[in-house]
Structures are given as C-alpha cells and as structure tokens.
Amino acid sequence: MTTVLHSLRLVDDGFITDDAWVAFADGVVLARGTGASWREMPVAETVDGGGAYLTPGFVDIHGHGGGGAAFDDGAEAIATARAVHRAHGTTRAVLSLVTASIDDLAARVGVIADLAERDATILGSHLEGPFLDVGHKGAHTEGLLRAPDAESIARLVDAGRGTVRQVTLAPELPGGLAATAQFVAAGVAVAVGHTAATEDEAAAAFDAGATLLTHAFNAMPGIHHRAPGPIVAAMRDERVTLEVIADGFHVHPHVIALAFAQAPGRIALITDAMAAAGAADGHYELGGLAVTVIDGAARLDVGGAIAGSTLTQDAALRLVVAGGLPLPAAVAALTTVPARAIGVEGRYGSLRPGAAADAVLLDDALTVAGVWVDGIRI
C-alpha cells in the first residue's frame, strides 16, 4: 500500500521545501516531490498535511528511559520508555545503560540485543560506564567505576552480538587508548566523556578512533583560556560529533548556540533522559542511586549532581529554534547527524527515497502532530 503525505513543508537535507509530498510504500520512502505530481501515482491512502512541517524521524543516541521506566530494567521497562519517546518523535533510539558490574551490563546488552532482533526501532545499546573518571562520575556509582581491560571489553561486545553501538569512556584512564582502539575495531562508536582529559588527551583519543563527545560541557573540564580541554579538542576535530542536552538546564542556551556555531553539522541533540521523562516530578532511581526530580530537573539525593534529564527530542528542537538556530540545522541535529555518528546514515534520519519511512509532523509551534514508523502512523 502506498501512502502519500502532501501539502507539507518538508524539512530535510538542510532545506525547507514548500508544498512538498512524500510517498511511503513497504516501510520505506518511495518518492518525494512538490505540488500535485503525486496524483499521477497509484495511491491507497493520502494525508493532507495542511502546510505543517514534516521531518525525518528523530534518532536519539543517548537516553536512559522515560514514562517512569529505565532501559536498565528489562524488556517491559524498555517498551514503556520507548513508547513515551516515540510519541515525541523519536522513531529510532540507542538505549543507554548506566554504570553497573560487568556481569549486569553483559546481561543487559544481551536483553537489548534480543529486542533489537525483533524491533528495528531499537538501534542497540550504549554503555555509559563503567570506564569513567571518578572525579567526573555524575550520576554513576563510584564503587563500580574502573579502568578498562581487554577481557571485560570483549565480554561486553560479545554479549551484544553486534548491537553495542556506542561506549562512553575516559581516555586518560590506564588502558584508555587501547580500549578505544579495541572498541572501534569491534564496530563500536567511542565517545569521550565523564572525563578529566586535557585537550591533548582527548585529541589522542580522537586519533585512536573516538568520534563522539558525550553530552558536551557536562561531566568534563570546561573551556578555560589556558586549558582548552576536551570540548575544544572536539570542536576543532571534524571527525567528532558533539552530543548536547538542549533542555536549558544542562547547558545554557547561549552556550548551545556557541557549540552549533563552532561545530556546524556536528551537533547531535540527545535527551540523556532518565525514567522521569514524560512522567511526574518525584523520587526515582538511576543506576541504584536515589534521584529527586523537581520542576523537571533531576538531581541525586546525595551530592546533588545532575542525574540525566526529563527531556524529549521535540522539546530540544523547540529550545534551539527559539534560541535562533535555523530549523533545518536543528532538525539535522536530531536526525542526520546522530544517524551518521553511529553509522546508520541513509537508512535512518532522512526522507530520501530508500530510507526507512520514519517521519514526524510538526505544527507551527513545533509540537508533534503525527509520527510514522516504517510508514505506519502510530
């Protein structure tokens, strides 16, 4: 069955195309164009967009849960959290796991690998820990943090059966650069994060194959005029994508604008969402640590560190556009950029013919009015 969405403002490939249409068939984008040319096609269903925006489905490469559920807690919790984010436009996601023992992490990536076999909207797992700097641990259990070793890495990669997409590590730890190379050789995107790395140490990690900076500005040294740190190293390296949590709380909107200006086309807007995303304020747990959410801001009960976010990707879009970022650049940061960062560009994060028929309909206020996954409206 062919479905045509028409009378749209298509936001893709860095442009806004007025009076556009997109045709879906068999779960992929069949064709697209402008005006009434779609009427020449045999069409089973039409959707009049009424001049609304249509973007590719959002891709979140770093999030921990939502709807009161965490991705660490098994298949049922994953389904609950994914439903929340899918309704906000996140059609594909990498599921992030907080620091735990190697045994627990191996079991959890195995669960995600099983789910990914039957649910293609799950792109795999992200190991945010345990190879992190104690001094920049954020909401990770200090006693479980450790330097990387080849045996543990191999076990985690094997448990994921090809679905471990990303790992965050502190490259200055003993064995950090060797771990970076080992993960990269296994097809895992390595992110520098939760780190005390200097600019030179971060640059060495990027030369060793790391291609991401985990939630830039958070859980790492800031930019100092005599010590540029990992943020500047990432901004200066065209190979590196910088994750940003655009909730107005983790990073000031003016600093978000600076990041986009200094690394155009290399900012991926992530949620880093914990269980409270799409749920009420209150008391939660993240990786075994008690968290209290007040006015949407999550902090550890002990120590007060920021404990993830309650962000959804559509809200991130609205914040950066309100801050002056052109809509096409903002949409790219939710679609093509994160898809490229984990090696799934072309298939996801695009509405070009042949790509998965994932799309988000947005009204003038950039509120989600419709979501399609594999050509089916949810």
UniProtKB/TrEMBL annotation:
SUPFAM superfamilies cross-referenced by the UniProt entry: Composite domain of metallo-dependent hydrolases, Metallo-dependent hydrolases
Annotated substrate binding sites: A139, N218, A219, R226, H250, I306, A307, G308
Cofactor note: Binds 1 divalent metal cation per subunit.
GO biological process, one term: N-acetylglucosamine catabolic process
Keywords: Carbohydrate metabolism, Hydrolase, Metal-binding
Any Pfam family the entry gives: Amidohydro_1
GO molecular function, one term: N-acetylglucosamine-6-phosphate deacetylase activity
Binding-site list for Zn(2+): E128, H194, H215
Residue ranges of every copy of the Amidohydrolase-related domain listed in the record: 53-375
Cofactors (names): a divalent metal cation
Annotated active site: D272 (proton donor/acceptor)
NCBIfam families (UniProt xref): nagA
Family from the record: Belongs to the metallo-dependent hydrolases superfamily. NagA family.
Protein name stated in the entry: N-acetylglucosamine-6-phosphate deacetylase
Record lineage: Bacteria, Bacillati, Actinomycetota, Actinomycetes, Micrococcales
